[in-house]
Amino acid sequence: MNKSTNNRNPFKIYCDLFGHNYEVSKKITSHVKEYTCKCCKKELTTNSNGNLIELTPKYKEINNLLEDFYNRRMMYLKNKTFVHQLTNY
Ligand SMILES: [Zn+2]
């Protein structure tokens, strides 16, 4: 068999043949997550339509803002629930 002369990442070839092996690398919100391929380290994220797209620096920035916003909101909701529980007793 002819040895390939190109220097493509063997993991990339594996991904091309069998598909990427994504795992969640970061949870932004309950709907938006970042994924990284375990083989070739390609990164994806969920966009506002719920589709998977390539994680570009621009989307990383958006996700950081989104994560910050989401965490603040969760914190607010948690505090609200806590107060609510207290008033029930
Ligand atoms: Zn891959």
How would you characterize the overall build of this protein?
By secondary structure, this protein is an alpha+beta fold. The chain has one domain (11-88). It contains two helices and four strands, in the order αββββα. The chain has helices at residues 10-18, 57-88, and strands spanning 22-27, 33-37, 43-46, 52-54. A four-stranded antiparallel β-sheet has the order 1-2-3-4, with no helix packed on it. Strand 1 (22-27) and strand 2 (33-37) form a beta hairpin. The protein starts with 9 loop residues before the first helix and ends with a helix. Bound molecules: zinc ion.
Low-pLDDT runs of 5+ residues are none
The proportion of strand residues reads 15-25%
Please outline the major beta sheet. 4 strands, antiparallel
Quaternary structure of the protein: single chain
Sheet with the most strands: spatial strand order: 1-2-3-4
- Tally of discrete structural domains: 1
Helix residue percentage? 40-55%
Bound molecules: zinc ion
Distance between the termini: 76 Å
Secondary structure layout:
Blueprint: H1 10-18, E1 22-27, E2 33-37, E3 43-46, E4 52-54, H2 57-88
Antiparallel strand pairs: 1-2, 2-3, 3-4
This protein binds zinc ion.
Residues 15, 20, 37, 39-40, 42 line the site of zinc ion.
